[in-house]
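agent> Task received from the user: take the single chain below, predict its 3D structure, and emit structure tokens. No templates, no multimer pairing.
agent> Plan: (1) validate residues, (2) run structure prediction, (3) serialize to tokens, (4) report one or two observations.
agent> Step 1 OK, no nonstandard residues flagged.
tool_call: predict_structure(input=
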Amino acid sequence: MAYALTRPDGSIIVGGAREAFWHKKSRYFDNIRDDELVKEASSYFDNYMQKYFRGWEDSDMKMQRIWTGILGYSFDYMPHVGQVPDKPGQFVIAGFTGYGMPKILLCGKGLAAMVRDRVSFEGTGLPKPFKTTVARNRAQSSPLKESLQTMWEEQAKL
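)
tool_result: status=success, residues=158
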């Protein structure tokens, strides 16, 4: 399970299911079909509450609604923060890879210091890999994609 949230109305939102389909390259990479449900993710949530939540084992609770969508990733899985290279006065804060909430607040604070106080990226205290650069913008390799390539090739042979 990637996350669970409770809402004021008593409902529970759960998320995850990446492990149900990441081994299928067409489902995980270069997929722009945000209008179709990822069926592997849907079945992942069958009896989800009974499997993962203590006290729910004997309940007949079923998921009421399922949504799947596209997560965008930067090539190196790091956010881009700072001045846009070769674009004076333009700044970026993007690429939080679908799970950016733990990073975005301090990145926002750092970006605000760059814009408002003209602090350099290095002066913000943000991690160096977050700095947007020409080299990062032109990168074509993906560590995750490269690490999964052998598995996808084996799957294609089956």
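agent> Step 4: summary for the user.
The chain has two domains: 3-52, 80-141.
agent> Done.
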